Amino acid sequence: MLGMHIPRLAVPAVLLLISITTLAQEKRATPPTAKDLVGVWIGFDQDELTFTRLELHNDSTGYCARVHPADTILHHYGVELYRVNRWNIEGWNLTFDLAPISSNAEPVYLKGQAGGIATLRLEISGVKTRWKLDILLDPESRIEISNKETKQAIDAIQK
After folding, report:
1. With contact defined as beta carbons under 8 Å apart, do 89 and 32 qualify?
2. Main-chain phi, psi angles of 133, to 5 degrees
3. What residues form DSSP beta bridges with 40?
4. H or E element, residue 62
5. Which of 5, 12, 68, 70 has a Cα-to-Cα distance from 26 of 20 to 30 A?
6. How far is residue 80's CA from residue 68's CA, in Å, rounded to a whole number?
């Protein structure tokens, strides 16, 4: 060890790095509870060809409705409506038991994860036909408020 010289700031820097790493490991995000997820969630599939509205009720039931945007040729198929017989969250993972209500709704499964910033990252898939799409849903209120505020800002500047 003779001749080895450690700069005076190296030891405090290493100790600071160890402290930050320890704090980061202890501070883990807490998964949402079922109560946190109750409400209306909206958004589009990954291909942006289907809009989804997911209503989650306090009693672990709800509704799911899907429709193609009015500016697509697929819109004439109408709204696909599902009853959520049961939904559940375990940790970050979500599962849904959906039953088709409308005649154009095929059997599907829906599952996914609650995101850390008020989003649901879900996967929907046909039970018989095996198609699969990712869906990103946000709380309806989050989008409505942001849309209203930005619209008002633009309207104010145009006056």
Report:
1. yes
2. -140, 150
3. 55
4. strand 62-67
5. 12
6. 9
Q: By the 8 A CB rule, do 61 and 4 touch? A: no
Backbone angles phi, psi at 143, to 5 degrees: -75, -45
pLDDT tens per residue across span 89-99? 999 999 999 99
Ranges of each domain in the chain: 34-150
Structure confidence by residue, pLDDT tens digits, 114-144: 987 789 999 999 999 889 999 999 999 988 9
Helix ranges (DSSP H) in the chain: 10-26, 34-37, 140-158
**Token match 């989008």: residue?**
143
CATH (residue range 34-150): 2.40.128.20
Residue 113, amino acid: Q
Amino acid at 156: A
The residue type found at 108 is V
Residues found in the chain = 159
